[in-house]
Amino acid sequence: MKSKRSTRTGYEDTSRDVEALVAELERDAPPWKKLVLARSLNEMVLKLALAGIKSRHPSADEAELKRLLADITLGPELAEQAYGKAVDRDK
Q1: Does residue 1 carry a pLDDT above 50?
Q2: Can you point out the beta strands (E) in 6-56?
Q3: Which of 32, 59, 60, 63 is deepest in the core (most CB within 10 A)?
């Protein structure tokens, strides 16, 4: 069995030269560009989390989806403090 090469990005199809170039570009990027990238990645993660919630709770309305997302992003205790008790649809 062929062992997988450990890479910085985790992608086996990315050459070390390209990884080095990406690392250099990230390192040399101005702070504002790093913040834009971080914000973009954060938005993508939230969209993915919301898509997962929608697939697990297809009948949830927007308020319920927001509350379930808060459970994931804030944790159940803080989400309850911020938004109140979650609706238990199983009862």
Answers
A1: no
A2: none
A3: 60
